[in-house]
Here is the input.
Amino acid sequence: MSDTELGRRGFLARMGVLGAVAAGGLFTGSASAATRSAGLEDLVAALQPVLAELARDTLNGLVVMTCPGPDEYSKAQGTPRPEPGAIEARATDFMIESLDNFVPFPDQLANPLGEALAAGLDGTGLDDALKSLLRNDETLPLSSVIAMLLNLIATQVNPAAVNGAFLSPFARLSYEDKCAVFEQMEGPNADLVATLDANLDEPLKESVSGMLRFVAGALLEFSAYGSYGEWGVYNPELKRTLKRPVGWELSGYQPDGVVHGWDDFLGYYQDRKQVDA
Here is the structure.
């Protein structure tokens, strides 16, 4: 295997893609042969559900940073708690829905990130399929791009995170290492910026550092909002919550149930029915 192939596989592994693809069965037996002979369009279609699973696993590891609970991701980062947390609050679903379908993420920020990740790949087959996805925001959800970015930095913080219990290298990190990932995203990380900026053309070159700071803050804010809000139990058709939200339990909010107004504010002062002119 050439140095170029090793470098390409290493980049795929660091983003979590190589392990996710292997776990998805694309590199095993007849599936591997079919993958090698498939056209680019078929490979793109095969990669999409694999990357979706990688994104979910990565974001599971993210949301427990702001609201840990009794789940395996909180245990892996070393901060388990007995009460329900982000996973029980469906914060990961909130993040995926927000990133993929709601957040108006500017193209001038999203495009450099996808282009920079794609620039680290070269070759044929799955590499070409992933590059095609990264360079087309209509086919690759933003949650997958964010997941690959977090995984790439995770392996820079702790190279051993390439292997472990979860699909995502980021999800394998300790809480302290996850904080280090965000420290690198928000700070002057010359190595990371060079990795992402290397093959970008003007005017995108040197835009990565500002974009990373924006992404880092937004991810933690949305994680906390999804963990403590009502989104996970709110039914938009019925326009009500189906059960008590996790965030309400954690904060002690409305301990006696939802209050539909207060007695003091019902009706008019001294039971007046009209006001004389």
Remarks:
- The radius of gyration is 23 Å.
- The beta strands are 234-235, 240-241.
